[in-house]
Amino acid sequence: MIHPQVDAILLVGIGLLAGAVIGRVIPRKDRVSKDLRQGRTGFYKSLNYILSNEHDKAIEEFTRMVDLDSETVEVYLALGSLFRSKGEVGRAIRIHQSVIVRPSLDKRIKIQAYFDLALDYQTAGLFDNAIETFSTVIQLDPHHLQAHQHLEKIYEEEKSWDKAFEIQKKIQKLTNSKDTMVLAHLETEKAKHLQEQGPIDDAIQGYRRAIQIDRRCVDAYLHLGDLFHQQGKYQKAIDIWEEVSELIPEYAFLTYKRLENSYYELSRYEEMGEIYKRNVSRNSKDVQSRLVLGDHYVRKGELNDAVQEYQDVIRISPHCIEAHQRLAEILMSQGKMEEVRRELEVVMTIFATKYLFYHCSVCGFESKNVLWHCPQCKSWDTFVH
Predict the structure, then answer these.
(1) Is residue 360 within a helix (H) or strand (E), and if so which, with residue range?
(2) What is the DSSP annotation of 110-176?
(3) Helix-helix angle 55-68:73-85, to 10 degrees
(4) Which of the residue ranges 9-13, 265-269, 296-300, 304-308 would you say has the lowest mean pLDDT?
(5) Residue 338: its H or E element
(6) CB atoms closer than 10 angstroms to residue 253
(7) Burial of 320 (0-12, 13-18, 19+ CB in 10 A)
(8) DSSP 8-state symbol, 357
(9) Are 266 and 285 in contact (CB under 8 A)?
(10) In sequence order, what DSSP letters do the residues of 274-335 get, joined into one string?
């Protein structure tokens, strides 16, 4: 099944085509009447095939219309888009290339043909060709938003973070918006690359720039703290990670293992209990912090307090498997087998509903971990509980 967005693109192309085929002015009266009848028939047939998701028949009808009037350029563009939507990218490329080389081509049509050709290249994974062709579109029309957007996604795929960052700034200028989070994530990715390649000081500055761009960019804090920890600067790492719980408390749980390691190195591990309690007090509905606090109580042998935390988690999030499992473990150690059975039944029910903790708010992609960049729709910072 073709994605609805693809059909939308094709329908726009067919809308443009209607003017060319149905409204075409031809000198001879008898030819006008014949061409209009045939044009209308072919147009409406193609439209019905698209709406019925019968793209093979639509392609056949478009091909017949091309034979009828080879000078109708819009027919070629729509036909090429159909081939691309069906995965016949090579044919789409040849069609769009044949349009581009036509002499005296209207600028609007020329831009569309280059854009369609760039989409062909991108679909085929020919990223160098796609970059060059999208760049041509932008040269012809500096305000072409879609060309900028596709170009940025290609740079992200190729991990050309500097270029992606610059294109994202142009996109925000075109849309009169300021999405600092996307810019911060791109700056963070640049810093990660610098950290891999060296020198480390450049990476540190990169993470700091990301935080300056958007103070809620959790990924930058995490990696900056990791870098300080690797350098043995444990207190500096702790200070960076604790900013997360202050500014973005819902992500505090991502710092806990990190904090534990640094406090352990400083022989101050016992301070972690107060950190857990403080974060729970900051955000009473913080499921992850309550789970960790419950685990802390278990390690200390304070099982009643642990039970209370796990029960609070279940009250806040009834489908939290971890809370049910840990509560069952404590109940089993206390010999409360009937209560254990009830908890395990709940766990099995949750598993049967394919429980996953996070999902992308844009496309719905599901994950058991927080992801900053959706692997499916490529959106940034869209994973929610």
Answers:
(1) strand 358-360
(2) HHHHHHHHHHHHHHHT-HHHHHHHHHHHHHH-TT-HHHHHHHHHHHHHTT-HHHHHHHHHHHHHHTT
(3) 160
(4) 9-13
(5) helix 337-352
(6) 20
(7) buried
(8) S
(9) no
(10) HHHHHHHHH-TT-HHHHHHHHHHHHHHT-HHHHHHHHHHHHHH-TT-HHHHHHHHHHHHHTT
Handedness of CA 146, 147, 152, 155 (dihedral sign): positive
Q: How are strands ordered across the β-sheet holding 366-367? A: 366-367, 358-360, 383-384
Confidence of residue 50 (pLDDT cuts 50, 70, 90): low
Task: Write out the DSSP string of 10-36.
Answer: HHHHHHHHHHHHHS---SSHHHHHHHH
Is residue 223 within 8 Å of 215, Cβ to Cβ?
no
User: Which residues, 6 or more positions from 87, have their beta carbon under 8 angstroms from its beta carbon?
Assistant: none
Q: What is the 3-state secondary structure (H, E, C) of 135-146?
A: HHHHHHCCCCHH
Read off the tokens for 223.
């990696």
pLDDT (tens digit, 9 = 90+) per residue, 1-30? 444 444 444 554 445 444 444 444 344 444
DSSP codes of every residue in 220-272: HHHHHHHHHHHTT-HHHHHHHHHHHHHH-GGGGGGGHHHHHHHHHHTT-GGGH
**Which tokens go with 283?**
């955000």
Cα separation of 143 and 50, whole Å? 30
Q: Counting Cβ atoms within 10 Å, is residue 108 exposed (0-12), middle (13-18) or buried (19+)?
A: exposed
* Residues recorded for the chain: 385
pTM: 0.77
**DSSP string for residues in 173-214:** HHTT---HHHHHHHHHHHHHHHHHHS-HHHHHHHHHHHHHH-
Query: Is the pLDDT higher at 236 or at 23?
Result: 236
Tokens of 373: 């960049």
